[in-house]
Protein 1
Amino acid sequence: MYFAAISVVRGFLLLALLLAWIAGNKASALLFSETEAKLNHKARKLITWAVILSISSAGVLAGMIWLMAATELVFWQDRLLIPPLLIIPILMVWMTSYPRLRRIRQATGRKTDSPLDVRLLSRASQPALVAPYQFVALGSLTGMYWTFTTTIPFDVLNETIPLVVLLIACMVLWLSHLNRSSRVSLTGTKPINRPLMRLLRRMAVLLVVLALGSIPFYSGLQASRLPETISMTAGPMDNGTGSQLAHHHHSGAVTASAEPVKEVSVDSLTGPAAGKPDVSYTLTAEKKAVKLASGRVVEAWTYNGQIPGPELRFRQGQLVEVKLINKDITEGVTLHWHGLDVPNAEDGVAGATQNAVMPGETYTYRFIAEQAGSFWYHSHQDSQEAVQKGLFGSLVVEPQEGMPQNMKDITVITHIWEGGGVAIGDQDGIQHMQIAPGTPVRLRLTNTDDWVRQSFKLLGTKFQVAAIDGTELHEPGDLTEVSLDLITGGRYDVTFIMPDSSVTLNVDQGGKLGIVMSPDGQGDLPKQMPNMPVFDPTHYGTPTSTPFDANSHFDREFTMILDNTLGFFNGKLALNYTINGKIFPDTPMFMVREGELVKTTIINRGAVEHPMHLHGHHMLVLSRNGAAVTGSPWWTDTLDTAPGEVYEVAFIADNPGLWMDHCHNLAHAAAGMTMHLMYEGITSPYTAGSATHNHPE
Ligand code: C2O
Ligand code: CU
């Protein structure tokens, strides 16, 4: 709804701009009419143009009304000035241009072939007749600018500078028409119509405007260049609102509180340093050409020479040790445990919690697996490229007692391989599995792709969504013919009891990729997929108690506004993906203290989806678009937000450190859509930026 409405506004603004541009030129050329008859004709046409402009402006207005009716204040508050920008000039067209056009028409009613006399010349060139048409164009241009630049959170400069420029442009236009009109009345002759001269003059004006504009443009470009070293602990602080702040003050240091907070380096927030690990793995990162099942070859970046990397599987409560060796990934690597809330120093973010592991280097991670569930791991150095090329794998933490003996536990991790297309792991075709009727089956669905919303369709049985993002749901009900859509980073665990007929898991529509599970290991994917609604976690399962809920008293409340904004990024003009109007490293750090209960309202004002991923914590979803979650508690670490959506989520700040919070469309993160959750008093010896090896995104 939101996106449709704002698109209507933008569309009609563009239309109004183009049409008003044409009409403005016609109005301005009125005095060049050769005869009275022609003037009469042109004046009538201009009246028609007034109607056309009114209609397109009404379209803008209708779009705005739709937007305001369908969405909350935060989606249009800053755009309220758009309607007056069109209504005022349109009113001028009707109140000043129109009567003058009518008088011209009356005076030229006999439609003679005689040239215009001085009275007609002066009437046809009056600024009050000509300028309003051009004001419509300027107004829509300003409106367009506003719809592409974020003014939420409110930014005075962004609101007022375009207004001031608009007013000056209108004045200049008016004065130049006035000047021309008085010359005409004085001399009684029209200026010679020299289209070439007019064109040249316009180009000159344009050049001057461009030259003037290039100064702020160029300095903006320069200022947007990323610094050579970025300290992740030095960003702008957002202390949120909420009860904690009543007695907190700005102190300028990394603590926002009056009470002193002990300084703690991320380096000290490790897992158990001593003790023999219960499980240990060695992952060696290397570049390698790897064959998919179909024989297609992928030039991959691998862990242990395979894509995806080996599945890591251990049990809740175990002490895990993973040794990472970088053989030849010149860009560097790390290991991040997506969704597993490990101590901060083990989180694997280059430039924040460690240095990127360069070729020939090793790094050892040690942590106790506190949660059971489905997770995945990936490099968090150059993560967009690293994940794309294969530096990831699935990670399963079984409950202490292990999975049921006879259960069939299947990991389904989808990825689009460069040069190989979409696949489940390295299987880019149809897999067959022989499963005896009555066997409990668990499918662990994970999507790892940037930009892709992967649809998984399970046919042939009723099933349950047992877990989301590694957390079990409470009393999940039976589902059939529901599409399970995952954005990048998210996980659904699906369970069912194997029937005595075949069950298919279908990825994509075409019957080409998926898993056939059947008692005899035979069968095919259906060629045609029924139309299915998309699984909605907000009303699924039944409620059960949670450590807090929507009525709890929150120590901190934050607002996270996602948007697209025309602006600069690292020395280039770009359509940026912004958080609270900013891109990294200017995005805020949400400041918290250990033990606080934190609520965040996530609002997507942009044009595309953003799966927001918070490291080190699981968020309880409280509401979506104002409607409370009524089913099972829904805990998430990667929350997809579509344009126009508003989510309220909350978590307990129980894992001190410096935690990334970013869009898991990693291309967006790499373009600056990243920020972090910051515990007061945390310091980090690591830096990112072009002068370092560390490029977390
Ligand atoms: Cu899966 Cu910060 O990432
Ligand atoms: Cu995004």
Note: The two ends are 31 Å apart (CA to CA).
Protein 2
Amino acid sequence: MKRKAVFPGSFDPITLGHTDIINRALPLFDELTIAIGININKKYMFDVDTRIRMIEKVYANEPKIKVISYTGLTVDLCHKLNIDFILRGLRNPADFEFEKAIAQTNRKLGNVETVFLLTGPETSYISSSIVRDIYKNGGDISDLVPKEILKIINQ
Ligand code: ADP
């Protein structure tokens, strides 16, 4: 049976922190679905189609990766797509506390196991919100995001 995982998140935009987790997860799974969760109460900087396009561009040559968007519960998405694992990245104790409750809930609610990878030291400080702040204020984000998306961001 194929080992399938979903990496859910906002990816607004995808950063080198995300790609660090994705690249290190690739050897662990046969298929990795990057799933952009849409929350109608949240305001995003990049629309969902642009965020999908960015990730597809970064992983254009990686057949194991699929990119989708979804609404609703991540466990429901897992059941629909026959996915057994949720992938999440951990940067700090705050991430851990937050993720712990969600992972335990997802296991109880949907019998889905969450796999955590610890951030690499070079990318642990990177977050999409920092990238958005720098970008909005005209700063240089080229060390924080994959080079493939710079063109799309500046369009
Ligand atoms: P969410 O709004 O669900 O947190 P994000 O797009 O911010 O969506 O993050 C998606 C996942 O990527 C989360 O598991 C988050 O912890 C992880 N992540 C984000 N930035 C980093 C980073 N610098 N290092 C490791 N993991 C990260």
Note: The chain has a mean pLDDT of 96.
Protein 3
Amino acid sequence: MPTSYQAPMRKDQAKSRSQSQSSETNLNSELATVADVLGRKGGDVFSISPDETLHHAVEILRDKHIGALMVTDGAGALCGILSERDIVRKLADTPGQTLPQRVGDVMTTEVVTCAPSDPLVSVLKQMTQGRFRHMPVVENASLLGMVTIGDVIGFRLNELEHEALQLKQLIVG
Ligand code: AMP
């Protein structure tokens, strides 16, 4: 009978599709790397010297529409990171006296960095555990750019949309 014959077929197909799709989905998210994100957003490196003032830093943050700056020494080496969070904290601690202060006195000096080959999943974990939203990308002591938690989540959302579309096409045929 057609009905009793078709039902197991649909079930079998659905099972095999969902298995192959789910392993593909896992593979995609595991394989996506920092380099994929940088490839999409570009490798702009916005940096400032530790001897500059916070006033100059907030001007750059405003003009570039970003939330953090990499702090680099005269040789271009990364020596800290300064985020809007650090500036807000300083504004509360030293009201009316914050903007003339040195970037080097306010920045975070223990910077967690990532490499272009790092999987996005591990970058996201580090950001969540460390409670920060920015990660400089470094390779062979060169600064290649910055990834933010927004970049990583945006990239993953895009992948999920793409995967959902692939699933729909598989189902619809
Ligand atoms: P954020 O959430 O990125 O604005 O930063 C929150 C705090 O973490 C600030 O004190 C930053 O200086 C610091 N921070 C931001 N990114 C990093 C990083 N990659 N490594 C270490 N500290 C960071």
Note: The two ends are 24 Å apart (CA to CA).
